[in-house]
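User: Could you check the structure of this?
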Amino acid sequence: MLVKVPALKKNSNLPNNPFYYEDQALQNGFDFIIGVDEAGRGPLAGPVVASAIILKTRRFVAKIDDSKKISSKEREIAFDEIWQNAYVGIGIINETVIDTVNILTATFLAMQQAIQQVVDRLPVQRKTFLLVDGNRFRTELPYSYQTIVAGDSLSFSIACASIVAKVMRDRILNMYDRVFPGYGFKNHKGYPTESHRKAIKQLGHCPIHRRTFRVS
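Assistant: Sure, the predicted structure tokens are below.
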């Protein structure tokens, strides 16, 4: 039976424990806890990428935090350690689908892909619970879930998903920088920077641009 737990907002009264939400789910009888986050909702170009993470251990050497709070080098180091010490699922929804269904729906689809992929990698199927970054989520998957505002700063599992999604998307945009030179994708990763807007005005849209997003 799918259960949606009310969204949790950042609460200064909560214990300073990066596994607080994971422990709560375990105490409620769930066996596998999946942290879910995405990267790429705001850019003018490229896909939205989601990641779903089930930790195999809680012992990490790398710095694990909201991907926006750590450097590119720290994210790459953390990415390698997460890949070794967790079950990882990746969901990628491209710009064509984003333009067709809207970015919010595309984000949920990417998250569903990532969740299904990581569940398929589990050695056994047991009671599973999702911790999802943000205040909204929609899924057809049969898993109970809880949305957490600023979850990538509050839940270790979500932070890991945040890092993996960000690194994967950055790598995709680095590749597109070589395919579509002149736009600067390697630098701004598709986000609406001044240099990106200027490049669009000079060169026009390229195939990975989201046509439903406003440039100015």
